[in-house]
Amino acid sequence: MNLRSIFFKTLGAGALGLALASAAGAQTYPQRPIRLIVTFGPGSGADTIGRILGERLSEQLKTSVVVENREGAGGAIGAALAARAPADGYTLMLGATTMTVSPYMQTAPQYDPVKDFVPVVKVAELPLMLIAGENAPYENLKELVDYARANPGKLSYATSGKGSPSHLGIELIRQATHIDVRDVPYKNVGQAMTDTLSGQVSFYFPAVTGALPQVTAGKARGLAIGATARSKQAPEVSTVAEQLGVSGLEVITWYGLFAPAGTPKEIVDRLYTETAKIMESEEVRGRIRKTGADVAMASPQAFAAQVRADTAKYSKLVRDLGLKE
Q1: Res 235: pLDDT
Q2: How many CB atoms lie within 10 A of CB 263?
Q3: What is the pLDDT of residues 195-217, one digit of tens each?
């Protein structure tokens, strides 16, 4: 046998050994408790969903899954911590759409949403609902756009702060329609909602969980839903894309599991499979729906594509708006 044959035989044996070791590692995983970082505070929708998944993954994987809340900076603090963790499957993160926005708001980003993470599974989506006070001179988004074009600079909209979903959602609509409206940032959702209902500001784009009770009570008018399909909770409210005729224009907050970049594929696949089993439970789906979110599963590959698309969309929007601190 010549040296070339020996080299390739040795190389092949080495590759096979690595593959077998990786497969064996996945089969024995996990061997110790798993840390699940939630990038928002206790009581938030993300926290509730993270704790539901943590509880069930503990049962499925036969080990403790410890939820750790690391809130702040739109989820950037928790995401930066998770990005620096060892890529061994023992640190996971429950992230949201804001992780594709927050780093681009900072002069010195602490993580890259695409390069520093492996998406494991998307589990839920929370749509935003565009609302106005009951006395507003428009009954839907299309009428709002027509009114804004006829009255440039007259309308204002509430936001939950610069770079928040309620802010960027309106900016996406504004770019699509070229309307001239003013943003009014608020420190809390409660005051933004109060001023919207009273007509102090013209409209607001909060999560459906905050908007729907006001619409149901007749205190607010639902103008549009940010999801790609109408909400089962308010089927009479048409989507942004429907009204504007812009395919794919959606304003949602998604939630999903991530692992640090470099986490072995076998472990990622195992976590996806176990989560998919969990999400088959009607009891789990019902608990998630109580947060106002819709169950929306996506594989690692499909979720990665969505994260890449949202990162490209929001990083450009933040640059266009000059929002970097």
Answers
A1: 87
A2: 22
A3: 999 999 999 999 998 999 999 99
What whole-number distance in Å separates Cα of residue 212 and Cα of residue 125?
Answer: 16
Q: What is the 3-state secondary structure (H, E, C) of 39-85?
A: CCCCCCHHHHHHHHHHHHHHHHHCCCEEEEECCCHHHHHHHHHHHCC
What pLDDT, on a 0 to 100 scale, did the predictor assign at position 12? 52
Write the pLDDT tens digit of every residue in 164-177.
999 999 999 999 99
- DSSP code string of 266-320: HHHHHHHHHHHHHTT-HHHHHHHHTTTPEEEEE-HHHHHHHHHHHHHHHHHHHHH
Helices (H) and strands (E) in the chain, counts: 11, 11
The whole-angstrom separation of Cα 78 and Cα 299 is: 23
**pLDDT tens digit string along 280-321?**
999 999 999 988 898 999 999 999 999 999 999 999 999 999
Q: 109 to each of 66, 291, 296, 301, 319, how far by Cα in Å?
A: 27, 30, 29, 25, 14
pLDDT at 232: 78
Q: What are phi and psi of 63, to 5 degrees?
A: -155, 165
Contacts of 140 (CB under 8 A, 6+ apart): 223, 224, 238, 243
Closest by Cα among 254, 264, 253 to 118? 264
Residue with tokens 């013209």: 202
Strands 156-159 and 203-204: parallel
Whether the full predicted model's pTM is greater than 0.85, yes or no, is yes
State how far the Cα of 250 lies from the Cα of 205, in Å rounded to an integer: 12
